[in-house]
Amino acid sequence: MANYFPGAGRPLWQRWLPGGLLLALLLLGASLYRGYGLTWDEPNNHYNGVVNLNYAAEFLLPPAVVQRLTPPGVPLHPKSTWQGFDHGVAFELPAALLGRLLYPGNAPEYYRLRHLLVFLVFVAGVAALYRLARLRYPAARWLPLLAAAALVASPRFFAEAFYNGKDIVFMAAFTLAMLTLVRLAQRPTWPRALAHAAATALAADVRFTGLVLLTAFTAAALLLQAYAPLATPTPARRRLALFGLFALVAAALTLVGWPYLWADPATRLLYVMGHTTHFPWPGLVFYIGKLVAANALPWHYLPVWMLITIPLPYSALGALGLGTALRTLARHGRAALRRPGAWLDTLLLAWLLGPLAAVMVVQAVVYDGWRHLYFVYPALLLLALRGARALGQAWQQRAAWRWVAGTVMLLLVLETGRTVWFMVRAYPNQQVYFSFLSTPAAERLFERDYWGGSVLFGLEWLLRHDASPVITVSGPLPLVLYNSWLMLSPAQQSRLHILVDERQARYFLTFYREHPPTSAAGLGPEVLAYRPGGRVKTLSIFRRDSLRRPLPLPPSGFLKREQK
Description:
Strand order of the largest sheet: 4-3-5-7-6
Shape: globular
Distance between the termini: 59 Å
Structural class: mainly alpha
């Protein structure tokens, strides 16, 4: 595989363009991150980081120091009642430490800092994707930039890049590990094996799936060197030694970066592995117009969600690239694998299709769309580059296809522009994007804002439009309302009371996750129908006119318990 030397033989502006665009992306994120609301999982994820941070401190520091550093009421070590330890803390632990140092006791500012940190990790993933595209197309000027731009211009990914500390962070870490794997396959050396082991451990310490998949990919890549070497063949003994070093260091660093595993690595690893494939979440998801148990989803759940939420141009080009890659492998076999481009395409096919097939075969529990498989999305985008190149070659070299290829390219560009315009209009709730479904179909068939990010907009709207000294509000999931309540100012919090018993609340708020639209009957008039970007109704507020006077009492039950 050809080496890439940044800037060699190119004009100065082309050498500086990727870095300039990356800086522009960072500035864009810095200007937007404060607008995103607090979503469903963030407090739990933060708590996981806090508990592991305190556990690490208890493990490493004298008890007297730990007592001074630990806020009252926070457990010092993992308790059996806490179910979050199957998730690694490579991101959450440093984020919790920064929050404790910079914003102790200030929840709104901490969570805004967390949003910025998630976005910085996302930007690192964009950079890793760009570098992978450069390795696949070393002579191309624009294709690698198109891959990075497509990831940024994916509405759901862009919104979640500010708060999804699990799936977006794992996607970025996995992409970095795949980059180090390609470099190791390109030139199998000890330093590259160590770098790949570190990247693999980082991904594993976000989600344990990373260790399993990346170990399998690494073994396959080194074995493939014997069958179809990219350059000078590497002796089998050296390849075996490199893999042994990688596996040993990756496992050791995974253990070091996950405090929960320290006390009993073998037992707790088995626990984590069991939860990874069959997570015991008993909830329901709204899928194709029905409430379905998350542990009994049909095989087509993931492909359908991918199809309806990935921008149509990327799906179309990805399918074209996948088809051309498979055709090349079928026609040329081993000879194709000796070419760096076809070898890397084979890795991309395994990256994209392997995890999808594995989830369907073992029937792993997934929910809330396809977010658990976000880490395969960079592979789809890299295959889409091959589809874009094939379309461009048809336009340039085949006169009979020129008009067809040109028309298709124009339609794809226009659709991409429409997607970007939606992202601008829908800020900060691009997470409810649907690619091609009509608005009525999307609202009738699928859950909408399963993250609850739009709830903050609804609460702020109530505070602006109801002058009552006390505003009572409830909904099907009061916990998510409470999360957004945390982001309000103290004066706003004192006016807005979250109630568990919806019969006592004047306003009922739903973001259409576990609450089908038909159950809104009898809740009174709809006073707010929020449609980010002018499309899908993401949030509704209903007013109970029977409660004309707001309750002059503090909320009981839920909010009181949470404040303890």
